[in-house]
Amino acid sequence: MGEVKLEHVTKRYADVTAVDDMNLDIEDGEFVTLVGPSGCGKSTTLETIAGLTIPSEGTITIAGDDVTTKPPKDRDIAMVFQNIALFPHMDVHDNMSFGLRLRDFDSEEIDRRVERAAEILQIEELVDRMPDELSGGQRQRVAIGRAIVREPAVFLMDEPLANLDAKLRVHMRTELQRLHKELDTTIIYVTHDQAEAMTMSDRIAVMNEGHLQQIAPPLVCYDEPANLFVAGFIGSPGMNFVEGTVEAEEIRTEGFDVAFDPAQVPELVEGDDVTIGVRPEDVYPAGEADELANPTRRIRARTDVLEPMGDQIFVYLVLRGEDAAGADTGTSGAASAQGADELLMSVEPDSDLTDDEDIEVVLDRRKIHVFDTGTGNAVCHDILRSEAMGGGHPGAREET
Ligand code: ADP
């Protein structure tokens, strides 16, 4: 079956380590997406699984078989690439069956497989067409069909939707999920698009600079990112980061403080430099945060730019600091260029906020992430712990 295991896989080129000590354990039937910025080693990892590249170190097994140095044809895999190279002089049927004909499959078996693939991909009526009579999305489906007819144990897909327009890409995401459900076959998928990774995968493997950062279900990467890189990469727009220092019972930043109970979160050590992470949806205008059980103290801010998205509005905030006269101190302009005293907040589309308005916001303390500024690693994702169950110290909950 289609289990894939990478153990300590490293791939070096002359002066680049494209993939560094990669360990992956992919179960049969799983949809795993390798995601990360351009150049992080996704394609190289996939190529080592495909047999297009031999790793410098490490082993790769597919279904228990050590394939590390085997050529692609001796691996039970089929690949789909970004560039769809269909033979222009062959119709869809012949394009899809080309590989099978090379392998001397009999024509009955070929027809059975092409028919099944065409049915799954809903392109039955296209099998007699030539490639230049197909749209981009249809061509991509034929390319996927060509992989399906191989009936491999593992599908390897390298940015297969990258050349499609935005609307079709979103549509094809759903198609690929449906396809995965139908085929029940392992899919290892490469993309730089975190939204694509989040929506389709059982697990995502986030990579940066050749290193695996975290492998987990999409929502775990979103809610409990292992480090600052994952926290910033997953989610759009990204998480807000504010640097601060751990004090006895609060994390102090330039613009605001976040109280915590040291008994509940012993991993927050006084004097440590930490970075607070909070997602835009966990920042609230103070007046609208009544339903929030655990808000921070009010944070004084000025609205800078508003971006209405239709279903929500992104509000760029410049913090005004704790200074009582702050209303006319740190206003936008110069302060906004520094970054550290900015926050992005998302609000409901019917919000009546305007730009250049002095407001107060609060953060949902249950949704505050803390990272070690030095290593970037997550320290904790819940600074309240059991406090919300009835414990906690007086003053930890602020009135709004
Ligand atoms: P991604 O797919 O995440 O964009 P790649 O796996 O293609 O990244 O590349 C990872 C790194 O390895 C990059 O720095 C890239 O330039 C380098 N690299 C990839 N293939 C080769 C090659 N054949 N020769 C030299 N360097 C390569």
Task: Give a brief outline of the structure.
It catalyses: D-xylose(out) + ATP + H2O = D-xylose(in) + ADP + phosphate + H(+); L-arabinose(out) + ATP + H2O = L-arabinose(in) + ADP + phosphate + H(+). Helix content is 22%, strand content 30%. The chain has 400 residues and is α+β, with helices and mostly antiparallel strands.
Outline the structure in words.
- There is one protein chain.
- With 400 residues, this protein is of the alpha+beta class.
- It folds into two domains: 4-228, P-loop containing nucleotide triphosphate hydrolases (Rossmann fold, 3-Layer(aba) Sandwich), CATH 3.40.50.300; 237-380, Nucleic acid-binding proteins (OB fold (Dihydrolipoamide Acetyltransferase, E2P)), CATH 2.40.50.140.
- It contains nine helices and 21 strands.
- It has helices at 42-50, 92-102, 107-120, 136-148, 166-183, 194-200, 218-223, 228-233, 334-338, and strands at residues 4-13, 16-26, 31-35, 57-62, 65-66, 77-80, 154-158, 186-191, 203-208, 211-216, 240-246, 250-253, 257-259, 273-278, 283-285, 299-308, 313-319, 342-347, 358-363, 369-372, 378-380.
- It has a six-stranded mixed sheet, sandwiched between helices.
- The chain is elongated, with a radius of gyration of 26 Å.
- Residues 324-338 and 388-400 have low confidence and may be disordered.
- It binds adenosine-5'-diphosphate.
